[in-house]
C-alpha cells in the first residue's frame, strides 16, 4: 500500500515556486461495495521470513562436546539422599522447612553424638542437634591449628604457602586488585600475610583469643578480631572484598553472617566463599567416611544450589561457581578412600602434620608412606580435575557480588 503524506499548502506553493510540480490531489475513495464477481487479482499473502537454521556441528570435537554435556547433566542429576530416620525439632536455615531426615544410617567417626540431617524440602544439610555457640570453640584448639603457626611439616607448609598465593589470584579474578580485604576465619594468618605482601590491607576474624594469636603476630594486634563477624564492630562499607576459605561451613548462623557481610562490603564489593560440596561424587562415594564431612566442626553442608540460593536471599548476585581446587580435593579423595578401605581415621592427615624426617624408630615407615602419598597425588589430581569438569568437585568456590 503506498505511503500517505500529509502536505502543508504553504509548503506546496514554496515547492512550486522552486520549480517542483506538486503531485495532483488523490481522488477520494467511496466505501467499498461487496462484489458479486470473483476477483481476478491474485491474493497477496504476507511474507514470513525465517532465519536460516543454525548449521549443525560435526566432527570429533562436536561429539566430545555433546558427550561431556550429557555426562555433566547425568552426574549432576544424581543427588545424595537421606537414608536415616526422621529427626525432631528441626527448622531449616534456608527454607524454614520442618521435615528432615538423617543423611546417613551411621554417624561419622568422632562426631561427639552429632549427626547430619537433610531438609526434605530444599536439601540443605546441617549438623543436628546444632551446638550452642559457647560449645563450638571446644571443638578446636592448638592441635587443630598447630603450634607456633606451623600446622604441617616443612615440606607440606611450603605447598600451603603456594596455595595461599592462588587466593590472591582469586581476588584479582573478582576484580579486586587493591583495598581492604576481610578474611573470615583467618586461622594462623598465612593468607593475611600473603595479602599484605601483595599490597592489600588485610583484616581477619577468629573464634577465640588462642586461635587468633598467630594471626595477630603475623599482621598486627588490631587487624584480627575475635568472635563472629556480626559481633566485632566493623564499619559500614569498610571492605572491598570478603573471603571465607573453607570456613563458611563452620558458622552457626550463616544467614546472619551474610547480612553482616552485605553491610560491611562497599557497593559492588566481592564475596568469595569456598566450601565442601555435599552433592559431589566424592561425598556420595564416601558418605559418613568423607574427609570433608568433619562433624561436628562442619555445621552446614552446602551444595552449589543451596549456597547460591542463600546468597540470593541475602542480597548477593552469584557470578561464578568453580569446582577446581588442588589444595583440598585430591587430598580429600585419598583420605576418604583410605577410610573406606578400613585404615585408621585421619591417618594420612596425621602423617602430613609432622616433619617427615622425625627422628625415631618410625622414621622409615613415615618416609615410605609419605612417598606413597606423593606418588598417588597426580592420579588423585587427575580424577578431581575430571570431577571439576563435570561440575561435581569435592569442594567449590563461589564468586558473588553485593547487589
List strands and helices in order, with pairings:
Blueprint (H helix, E strand, L loop, with lengths): L8 H9 L42 H18 L22 E3 L12 E5 L5 E4 L13 H4 L8 H20 L6 E5 L5 H8 L3 E6 L2 H11 L4 E3 L12 E7 L8 H11 E12 L4 H6 L13 E2 L2 H10 L2 E7 L6 H12 L6 H7 L9 H27 L5 E8 L1
Parallel strand pairs: 4-5, 4-7, 5-6, 7-8
Antiparallel strand pairs: 1-2, 2-3, 3-9, 8-11, 10-11
Helix pairs in contact: 4-5, 10-12
Structural features, described:
With 403 residues, the protein is α/β, with parallel strands linked by helices. It has a domain at 134-402: Rossmann fold (3-Layer(aba) Sandwich). 35% of the residues lie in helices and 15% in strands. It is built from twelve helices and eleven strands. The strands form two sheets. It has a seven-stranded mixed beta sheet, with helices on both faces. A four-stranded antiparallel beta sheet has the order 1-2-3-9, with no helix packed on it. Helix 10 crosses helix 12 (363-389). The two termini are 51 Å apart. The relative contact order is 0.11. The model is unreliable at 1-44 (pLDDT under 50).
Which labels suit this protein?
403 residues; alpha/beta; Rossmann fold; 7-stranded mixed sheet; 4-stranded antiparallel sheet; 11 strands; 15% strand; globular; disordered N terminus
